[in-house]
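Structure (tokenized):
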């Protein structure tokens, strides 16, 4: 299992809609997340900085392949069509990245 964290900005005018969407995530999207070997997935919001922090645990063996599987899912594509315009990537992300990866510097169980 690999712990993973990511950050992205959220546009302030979309915060309530983002919260509402995530209060009732579509079952098809949740099924795809599980099919792609992701568990214990949480998204946190930090205001007033309007920062989203995501944490999840990856239980697969080929993260790139699982991410491609997720990206090919029609329900997930529709979900992202709604949520992506609500977010704003950091200027420092690499080409093709949306959520910026965060490096773990400490962990204890």
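Design, position by position:
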């Amino acid at each position: 299992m690999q712990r993973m964290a990511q950050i992205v900005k959220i546009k302030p005018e979309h915060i309530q809609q983002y919260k509402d969407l995530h209060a009732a995530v579509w079952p098809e999207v949740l099924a795809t997340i599980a099919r792609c070997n992701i568990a214990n997935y949480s998204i946190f919001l930090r205001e007033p900085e309007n920062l989203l922090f995501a944490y999840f645990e990856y239980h697969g063996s080929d993260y790139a392949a699982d991410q491609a599987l997720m990206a090919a899912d029609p329900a997930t594509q529709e979900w992202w069509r709604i949520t992506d315009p609500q977010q704003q990537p950091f200027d420092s992300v690499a080409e093709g990245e949306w959520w910026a990866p965060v490096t773990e510097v400490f962990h204890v169980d």
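Reviewer-requested clarification: The first strand starts at residue 2 and ends at 10. The chain has one domain: 2-91.
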